């Protein structure tokens, strides 16, 4: 199912004229690996929760060795998939990208293209090697700040997590990519979370109305051209200023005529008629998405506020065990997990929501390097290189999704629906209680503990400085979302061919749109 989704997703935006087999396979594979990696999170949470009964006792089969083996299996699954991600980001995708860059310049010599692509890819491999070396020897000792019980628990957690230099190096490299994914999420996902629902609610302008306006613009440009060219009827040459104006007007006229062909094609297509028929459904989805976006933002704000008020501070990466300020998602997920597989459905929905909003943000903004626009993302017209960039950005965003889900529901990601037994004062019987930071210290010995912390949580917080970066990144995410919401509210309706026709397009691109809509 994941491969089918990735294939449909890639093919939707792929250029029909510049379609390449290797770039298509690379994009589909990279996106599939990212989605499979995100699926490990609910698996990890389900397993630690499944070991215990609802009354807080362990199941008969869940002895110390079994619980340890299960958690180690999940951890090795993470490292296997993350190793594949490193291979994609630092070797495979860069090689395919540079290969097609060279193919455009040198059509005949395949050997030369491969050599040049390998030369540029070597730079990415060097960066990966540097990250692995830094990760292997970076000090993991959390700075001492105060002698608190919670602080000792945090340090003991990471000591039990393992000290293998190889695994630490891989973890450091993946955490570095996750920080880049965080920046991509702040740039694209936060804006897409506001742009996507409001675009669904506002809809697009009518194709017939745009054609009428476009026809008027064509007539106006043609009349302007005739007025200027009439100046040279008596044999006098046009001035340099008039020649520049004529050139600009002719380019403008070509663009308007392309718009006319595209608008005519869209107006006659069955897809446009179908979209008009389901317009009320789009409004409902838009309202639903904006409510979900606001729910996510409120949950993220409360989670970050909890860390600001109750964590051990910057030197610990704002690590917090348990929650003091609860939020809607953190309360909902443990309840859903008691009915398999409702929590899986919700987590999958959250991941897919992040992907769709990220894609909406990328499509609206394009792919930028600081202030330089590198590529545009348009359905049926995206170049192979842009498609590779798109999938790499989505891959990095999905890497960051695990931390986003932790930020939205920290209690769920740490313990799932686990409970432990506690004996109240002056009471002879034990009562069950949700696992949290108030649990006895024996919880964190990783033997046959009353509560078992997920490997996902430990992996996310292995390096305190990355955790601190994620914390500040969440505040930036909230700010960009609110700014994007204001901008999207102030914008009018989008054109029905928004981004489909630009002055730098060739006339051959008209054929691609016709193929897409017919």
What tags apply to this protein structure?
two-stranded antiparallel ribbon; 3% strand; single chain; mainly alpha; two-stranded antiparallel sheet; 518 residues; disordered C terminus
What would you say this structure looks like, in words?
The structure is a single chain. The chain contains 17 helices and 4 strands. It is an all-alpha fold and 518 residues long. The chain has a domain of 351 residues. The longest helix is centred in the first third of the chain and has 42 residues. It starts with a helix and ends with a helix.
Overall shape: it is: elongated
Radius of gyration: 28 Å
Q: Residue ranges: pLDDT <50 for 5 or more in a row?
A: 441-448, 506-518
Helical segment count: 17
Average residue pLDDT: 78
């Amino acid at each position: 199912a994941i491969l089918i989704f990735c294939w449909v997703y890639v093919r939707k935006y792929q250029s029909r004229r510049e379609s390449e087999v290797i770039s298509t396979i690379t994009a589909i594979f990279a996106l599939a690996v990212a989605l499979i990696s995100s699926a490990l999170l609910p698996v990890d949470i389900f397993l630690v929760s499944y070991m215990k009964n609802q009354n807080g006792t362990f199941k008969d089969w869940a002895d110390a060795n079994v619980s340890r083996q299960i958690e180690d299996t999940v951890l090795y699954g993470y490292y296997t998939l993350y190793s594949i991600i490193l291979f994609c980001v630092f070797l495979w995708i860069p090689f395919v990208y540079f290969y097609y860059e060279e193919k455009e310049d040198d059509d005949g010599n395949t050997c030369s293209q491969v050599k040049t692509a390998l030369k540029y890819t070597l730079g990415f491999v060097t960066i990966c090697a540097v990250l692995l070396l830094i990760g292997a020897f970076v000090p993991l000792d959390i700075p001492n700040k105060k002698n608190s019980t919670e602080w000792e628990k945090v340090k003991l957690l990471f000591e039990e997590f393992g000290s293998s230099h190889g695994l630490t190096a891989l973890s450091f490299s993946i955490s570095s990519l996750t920080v880049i994914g965080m920046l991509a999420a702040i740039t694209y996902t936060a804006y897409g979370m506001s742009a996507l629902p409001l675009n669904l609610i506002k809809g697009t302008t009518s194709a017939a109305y745009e054609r009428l306006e476009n026809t008027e613009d064509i007539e106006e440009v043609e009349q302007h051209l005739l007025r200027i060219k009439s100046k040279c009827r008596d044999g006098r040459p046009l001035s340099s200023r008039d020649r520049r104006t004529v050139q600009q007007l002719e380019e403008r006229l070509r663009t308007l005529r392309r718009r006319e062909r595209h608008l005519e094609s869209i107006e006659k297509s069955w897809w446009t008629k179908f979209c008009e028929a389901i317009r009320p459904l789009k409004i409902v989805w838009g309202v639903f998405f904006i409510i979900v976006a606001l729910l996510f933002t409120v949950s993220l704000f409360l989670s970050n506020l909890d860390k600001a008020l109750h964590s051990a501070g910057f030197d610990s990466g704002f690590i917090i065990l348990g929650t003091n300020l609860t939020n809607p998602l953190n309360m909902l997920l443990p309840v859903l997990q008691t009915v398999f597989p409702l929590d899986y459905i919700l987590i999958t929905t959250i991941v897919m929501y992040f992907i769709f909003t990220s894609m909406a943000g990328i499509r609206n903004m394009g792919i930028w390097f600081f202030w330089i626009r590198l590529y545009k993302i348009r359905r049926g017209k995206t170049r192979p290189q842009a498609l590779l960039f798109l999938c790499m950005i989505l891959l990095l965003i999905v890497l960051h999704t695990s931390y986003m889900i932790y930020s939205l529901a920290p209690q769920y990601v740490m313990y799932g629906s686990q409970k432990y037994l506690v004996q109240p004062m002056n009471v002879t019987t034990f009562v069950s209680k949700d696992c949290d930071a108030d649990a006895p210290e024996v919880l964190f010995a990783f033997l046959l503990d009353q509560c078992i912390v997920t490997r996902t949580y430990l992996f996310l917080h292995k390096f305190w400085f990355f955790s601190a970066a994620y914390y500040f990144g969440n505040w930036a995410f909230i700010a960009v979302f609110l700014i994007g919401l204001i901008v999207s509210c102030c914008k009018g309706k989008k054109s029905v061919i928004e981004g489909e026709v630009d002055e730098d397009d060739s006339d051959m691109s008209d054929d691609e749109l016709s193929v897409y809509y017919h």
